[in-house]
Amino acid sequence: MTRRIVVFPDVSEADDDGLLAVGGDLQTDTLRTAYSKGIFPWPISLDFPLAWFSPDPRGVLDLENFHLPQSFKKQIKKSNYKMTFSTDFKSVIESCARITRKGQAGTWITPDITQGYSALFDEGNAYSIEVWDHKDLVGGLYGVCFGGYVSGESMFSVKSGASKFALLTLIQLLQENGLTYLDTQMVTPVVELFGGRYIPREDFIHRLEDADWELNRDQIFSYKKALNAD
Description:
single chain; alpha+beta; Aminopeptidase; 2 domains; 5-stranded antiparallel beta sheet; 3-stranded antiparallel beta sheet; globular
C-alpha cells in the first residue's frame, strides 16, 4: 500500500500546553504518522477545529503499576455486564461524542474526528470495547492500536462504573497479548485509580521506537479469553 509522506514539526516545538500544530487533515496516513511521533489530534475550539498535541509530561498506564480499586472489586462481583471487542465501533465513538462531561461545554470529538478514526478502524488500526447490559450499550471506550502501541482515546458510561469495566477489559487484553502499557495521553481520575501516571515526553517517545506501525488489530489482539468467548 502506498502511503503519503506526512510531516509534523518536531515535538520539542510544542508549547507549555503541548500544542504543536494547527490544521491539516485526519486521513489515516496523517493519524498513523502523528501517533508514531507521539502526537495526537485534539480540537480545542471553533477557532482551532483541528489542533495537534504532544504534551510533556505524557500520561501512561504501565501494566506493572496496574491495580484494582477496592470499591471497584465490589462492583465486579455484583455486575452482569458483558464486554465485547470491536463489535460496534460506530456506536462507541458516537456515544463518547454525545456524553456530557463535567467542566466541558462541548465535545472535542467532532464529525471529522469520528470520520477519521472510523476510517482508521476500517483499516484495522483502531479498536473499541463495548459494555452491554443485556442488549443496551451502557459503556465503552475506543483507541488506536499498532504493534506494541495502544492508546485510549475516550470512554463513556451511561450506567455507574460501566466505563471502568471497559478499561479493565482493555487492560486484561493488553496483559494477555504481551503489551506493557497503555497511552492515556492524560491522567484522568479514573486512570489514576487504576495506576496511571505521568512520564517525561522524551521517555514516552523512546517507547514508540519499539512499535511495529504496520501490524493491525487482529494481529495484535487475541481476545477470546478476556471476553469469555467460545
